[in-house]
Task: inverse folding
């Protein structure tokens, strides 16, 4: 599994940080920051949830 | 995909009828209809109702759809159903589309991050505890709307904006007039809005000369928003975060009293948001290009109302949607909207709700409704669902001081 983000699209809702706090954070501008672009399998469901909840389609989760 | 071409028969507006539960039972029938549901606004304009979860999300992320109330065909709710129209105020960015919208949103995001809201928790706890202290000191009954649910967001936002303690009474009374519909006339709300705008202007002036550790001072320091725009931004934060939060608090308390097995479970916050979906009529839109939604072609210039309460009770998206079940695994409700306008203060709302639920039931475990649940006055006369009053009682401990 691999995560890519387009931080330009981020609207800072913070849903990713709430869903997968070990994988996503917000930088000083409040925009998404990916801590682990290849998350461990234990985080896979939380990462999918983060992708699903992101209101601005900032996060793309690649299942490869 | 089938595309209905004949004009469907329009359903009546307003969608909520006094005496009916919320969300309206008719939403279920609307979701089952082919295509979209047509209604007419009080001013006569044709509007499409979007009721299915996937389609509500599609509308709220479509680039062919605008949130700008000045656009031809935008579905305006009647003047008697909401706060006075603020759309002409610079900085009212909820009515702007990208890219104009993004400058305001980006400037404000740092104020509402998960980490920043976590830092506000001790001060929210103090606010909530102080209000519960006052309730307990006053006797063995209260109106949880007036005594807790409305003052919590009011005191939290005034602390965030750096409203001086001496001005809190003025600030709170005008805010309350502005956001509560039942006990004020349109003229009173208009006056309160003007007085608040004047006050916010003066407050900004003070922060320009004497910056403090508050949202206004920090925004002024970034320079991203002009002082004139800042007035509108603050008014928007004030209104957007107020009655919405209060309604979630009061309806959530009632639901927990009816489902006491969930008291103390933090997941009740997220489920309250979905289950009650108080901001059903907030995200209004107009098509700016022809766009296909729900198998129907919506023409440019036609109004669209994505009903978030209908989406949040769509059984395609949520199993047993009419059950209050904080243990459910589906978390993708649209109670805060969706897309670039999704509620900026959502994490602050969650914190306020969580702290109220926790402190209230911890400190007053004998809390109960003072009237039968069917007699609670549900709001039918505004854009938001909620309670006008929530009378509660409790038994004083025998050893009370």
Result:
């Amino acid at each position: 599994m691999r995560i890519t983000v387009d931080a330009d699209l981020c609207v800072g809702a913070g849903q990713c940080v709430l869903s997968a706090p070990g994988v996503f954070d917000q930088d000083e501008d409040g925009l998404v920051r990916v801590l682990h672009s290849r998350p461990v399998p234990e985080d896979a469901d939380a990462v999918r949830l983060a992708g699903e909840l992101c209101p601005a389609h900032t996060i793309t989760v690649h299942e490869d | 995909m089938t595309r209905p071409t004949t004009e469907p028969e329009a359903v009546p507006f307003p969608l909520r009828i006094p005496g009916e539960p919320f969300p309206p039972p008719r939403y279920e029938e609307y979701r089952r209809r082919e295509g979209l549901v047509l209604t007419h606004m009080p001013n006569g304009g044709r509007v499409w109702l979007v009721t299915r979860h996937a389609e509500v999300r599609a509308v709220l992320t479509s680039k062919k759809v605008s949130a700008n109330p000045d656009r031809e065909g935008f579905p305006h709710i009647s003047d008697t159903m909401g706060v006075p129209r603020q759309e002409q105020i610079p900085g009212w960015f909820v009515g702007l589309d990208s890219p104009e919208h993004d400058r305001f949103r980006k400037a404000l995001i740092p104020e509402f991050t998960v980490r920043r809201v976590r830092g506000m928790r001790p001060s929210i706890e103090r606010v909530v505890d102080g209000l519960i202290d006052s309730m307990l000191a006053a006797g063995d009954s209260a109106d949880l709307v007036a005594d807790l649910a409305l003052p919590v967001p009011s005191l939290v936002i005034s602390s965030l904006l750096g409203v001086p303690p001496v001005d809190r009474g003025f600030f709170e009374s005008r805010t309350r007039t502005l956001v509560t519909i039942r006990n004020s006339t349109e003229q009173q709300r208009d006056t309160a809005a003007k007085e608040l705008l004047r006050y916010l202007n003066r407050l900004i002036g003070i922060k320009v000369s004497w910056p403090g550790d508050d949202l206004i001072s920090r925004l002024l320091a970034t320079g991203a928003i002009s002082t004139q725009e800042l007035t509108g931004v603050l008014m928007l934060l004030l209104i957007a975060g107020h009655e919405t939060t209060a309604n979630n608090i009061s309806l959530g308390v009632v639901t927990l009293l009816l489902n006491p097995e969930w008291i103390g479970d933090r997941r009740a916050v997220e489920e309250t948001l979905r289950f009650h979906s108080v901001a059903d009529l907030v995200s209004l839109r107009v098509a700016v290009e022809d766009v296909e939604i729900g198998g129907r072609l919506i023409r440019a210039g036609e109004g669209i109302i994505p009903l978030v309460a209908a989406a949040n009770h769509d059984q395609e998206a949520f199993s047993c949607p009419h059950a209050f079940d904080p243990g459910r695994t589906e978390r993708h409700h649209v109670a805060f909207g969706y897309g670039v306008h999704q509620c900026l203060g959502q994490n602050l709302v969650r914190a306020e709700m969580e702290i109220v639920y926790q402190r209230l039931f911890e400190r007053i475990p004998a809390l109960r409704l003072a009237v039968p649940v069917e007699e609670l006055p549900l709001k039918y006369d505004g854009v938001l669902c909620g309670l006008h009053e929530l009378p509660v009682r409790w038994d004083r401990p025998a050893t009370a001081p």
